[in-house]
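FORM 7B - TANDEM STRUCTURE REPORT

SECTION 1: FIRST PROTEIN
SEQUENCE AND TOKENS:
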Amino acid sequence: MEPEFWHQRWKDNVLGFHLSEANPLLVANFKALALKAGSRVFLPLCGKTLDIHWLLSEGYRVAGAELSEIAVNQLFEDIKLKPTITNLGDLTHYSAKNIDIFVGDIFHLSRKDLGVVDAVYDRAAFVALPKAMRDRYAEHLTQLTQRAPQLLITFEYDQNLLQGPPFAISNLEVSQQYSDAYEVTLFASQAVAGGLKGKCDAVENVWLLKPAAQTKVFDEESIKLPQRGRWKVMLPVLALFILMGYLAYHYHWDAKFTAGGAVLAGLYTGLVTWLLGVITLIPIIGPLIAKILTMSFIWLLNAVGYFVSYIAIRRGYSKDVITYRGLTIALIIGMVIGYVFGSL
């Protein structure tokens, strides 16, 4: 539908879509979203719906998008709030306590302007758009709200008997439009009393859309690049290995001793890598344990322990070394446990 169509409807006060009370389907089914008090609910193409009054009275915050400035002015008059009006370029932002309405084309509304929303209640937007615009709208809304859960209301009837809006939406179309991002459930249905506009039988469907589990996309947000500071650690380690190789060659160290040390170092490194790989397979806490065990501080603490143990044994304090190493291991275990619990 062209914007002028809706502007004319508001100018002529032809508001067959406007209910004189909060939508009973909203009141009866909104709890399915399981939102906490104070959650922010987005209503696309909201008009001056009394559903906003109901949501505010239930302790929710409301955000909405509406094409007609007439509708938004009437809305704020009805809820007896004086809005602060801000120009956002293509949009105008009307705001008051617990409510933000963006006036203009919803396709010009960005995620930055809208802000975070906890859920979407779509009673009048999806059904108001022809098929070509619904394709674009569904994708835009999903990205705009970052796949926030939705309560979606649609009509099902013979489109040949009545010209929309509201348009007839089949169950198949709802699934096709949203199943890539959501788990789509037909939550409730009821016949429209007296038929749609009194002209044809129709069913009103309530859909619950919950974000579907998705495989992570490897982009700059989901995969972390190696830290540039790593070279500050690895360069000295590499220099140490080169120095040890030079000393072994220059002072003619025993070849078996040198080769054995290199093999043992390789085996130790491989064993640690394998063990960390196994640990990361443990659900939830595995990656946390592996993360702390690979921290430079842990390796430094353990290396100091080995060095002190070597000195102590050479000086005849073998029994004390056992106690010391036990305390060191206990300290590391305590740090791991504390880090895991602090991160959960």
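SECTION 2: SECOND PROTEIN
SEQUENCE AND TOKENS:
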Amino acid sequence: MSELRAAVRTIDITPPIGIAMAGYGARTKPSEGIEDNLLAYALVLEQGDEACAIVVGDLIGVPRELCDILRERVEELCDLPGERVLICGTHTHWGPVLTGDGYLPGELREAVSGQYALTTMHQMAGAVAEAWNNREPAIALAGTGDADLVKFNRRLVGEDGQTQMNLRLPLEQALIASRVGAELAETWEHGGGRGQRLSEPIPEIGGLRVGPANTDLPLLKLLGEDGSPLAAVMTFGCHPVCGADPETTFYRYSADWPRYARRVLELTLGCPALLLLGCAGDQVPLRRTGDSRMRIGHSIGAEALRTWELIEGEGIGPLRVGSRTVGLPIRDLPSVEDAEAALEATGDPEGAAAASERQMLSLAKRYEGMDEKTVEIWSMGLGDQFGLVSLPGEVLCEFELQIRQRTPFANTAVVELGLDSPGYLPTDAARREGGYEPRWSPFGDGTEAAAVDGASAALEDVAG
């Protein structure tokens, strides 16, 4: 097996103050400060005739048109083909809007900076090129940790079979939901049939039923030729929505809990640590106020560090890289005329209360006349020990559980927001149960099967 070579670079992508922020329709003004800097990481891997790069930034997501710009710029700067580059965001809700988001009111749409978005894509491409030009011999190892009691599934279901969104629960109830959700996730066994997707009604949570919360934390451990830490790549699915205090941090940039998770490894190991977001579409942290960013991030980072220290053995490989295109079905959306009428009927089309109607009008315009959206599913494998596959948009936990049931790898990272951020990917059951995710999503029945089948096939393509 030929030698593996790798390198990683980190850059600061913090925007200037005064740019519209992404993540909350309730925001009424642009950013006002910096809580902590936003970063981007670029990792390159090369072995024999195969090579790739993974780029992740502290961004809500990266739309496809900007991914294409980044990929094209990489090809201009070095001899790494653009299609070999995966681009994704950590999904912090405290970063900038990159394009004119549909739910934003007019005054905030004017605060979106196309110049910042383009400059950031070029900066991230430059980080890829710099890493590519400085790659060195490396050893890859992999393992999977178990980060429990840090999150729960927010899609609780009532007696009527409909979702009752619970973005926050009192800590005692959140702990119950977290424990039960983890137990449900364990029923989705590798090679088996569908696991249990809802608990029995739980009296302590008002008789509501809890959904799964996958606690797996896949970790790729990269060492230099002399055995020193080169880079860590961890994947975990939990929404970065800590610290939503309108009086203090609501209008200040922050990488949220991923910053603290990365720092646990970086300060201990002395190497960069990438955080790739797993399927977090319905997964939220136990704590969201006060020092929750630190506590959630430290919990996840500590488990990643524990896993790092337990991983031993020979280097894994060889490296394989691939991608597939899949069509995701578009759901029945209102006509542009009906969506415009619904927005006007709110009485305050630019107000915070009309965010949902503005979002629906945006979807109606974007997908008018379309039956499906073609997306790219990117994959990478190292022998039979580590596989990574990405899906576009915000993905519900059940997608990840199904893909891991079918994976040919001992350790598998399922990454969301890969190469696009078109909205939520709902399961068919979630569409029947209603709630925020399917309501804000452009995708319809059949999305689950198309995405899971596509991701599973993409992993098979790069399996050893």
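SECTION 3: OBSERVATIONS ON SECOND PROTEIN
The radius of gyration is 21 Å.
The chain has a mean pLDDT of 95.

SECTION 4: SIGNATURE
Preparer initials: ____
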